[in-house]
Amino acid sequence: NAKNRVLAFLFAAMFLCLTPRPSQALLLLESYVFMNERSGSAVMTVKNTEERPLAYRLSWEQVYMTPDRGRQIDRPDVAIENVKAADPYLYMSPRRMVIQPRQMQSIRFMLRREKDLPPGEYRSYIFLQPEKIADLRANNDTSPRILQGQGVQLDMLAGYRLPVFFLNGETTLDVSFTDIRAGKNRKGKDALFFTMNRTGTRSAIGKVDVVCDKGTAEEKLLVRKDVKIFTELNRRDFSAVLEAAPSACKTITLSFVPHIRDPDYKGGQPMAVAQWSGP
User: Fold this and answer.
1) pLDDT class for 75, splitting at 50, 70, 90?
2) Topology of the domain covering 21-168
3) Distance CA 73, CA 77 (A)
4) pLDDT, mean over the chain
5) Residues 6+ apart with CB under 8 A from 8
6) Where in the chain is the domain with CATH 2.60.40.10?
7) Which fold has domain 173-276?
8) Per-residue confidence at 190, pLDDT binned at 50, 70, 90?
9) End-to-end CA, the chain
């Protein structure tokens, strides 16, 4: 009836007038944190890129990688093979922080040294949980702010997770490429498809460089950044869009280069190399 139509219109209008603020712009200056026995400590830095203070509570979580690239968070009822938590052996400071506009904040990690700790990789995630900072106005009113009589301003708080690795004692890692092929991706663009395999006691984290050898010159086709296979997986499938058609290449070379912050692999030298010359 007419009354219901009017109510529906008013509800829709109110919904459209809700004006969300953009998600918090906290810039993480590192993608990963690495520690080993020799370093004993590590520091990560974050920056508030907004024009207002941001507050966060810091805690630990266990995040697991699944074959379909999904992630499971805090599953104490599921035993994950080859994954050891790092947080029981680390101090983290601070646990809560308020970052002023355009300022940076350091987060420090220190090793709790324990005797007879088995060698291997230990991994946990730091979770930066946003906390609301009350926006007090002259009359101490904390109700949602009205924007020129047109809408309500809402806060959308975004959390951040980042893996922290503690490498204890001797660790091993071997990486290889298989199932390399060229083709079209779902959008019809030239792409390279490949499988990366991991064996050993630690995760593979880094990038893949793809170089085209045309016979007379070499051309870097792409850099596939943030390639990772955690210890709970032995292989992952990847794809990457090519900037040039692979038919122009006599051979294509793939190189896996470990992450520059990885304490065991410095210098930018590739750990694994494979060549592909077409079907």
Assistant:
1) low
2) Immunoglobulin-like (2.60.40)
3) 11
4) 82
5) none
6) 21-168, 173-276
7) Immunoglobulin-like (2.60.40)
8) confident
9) 67
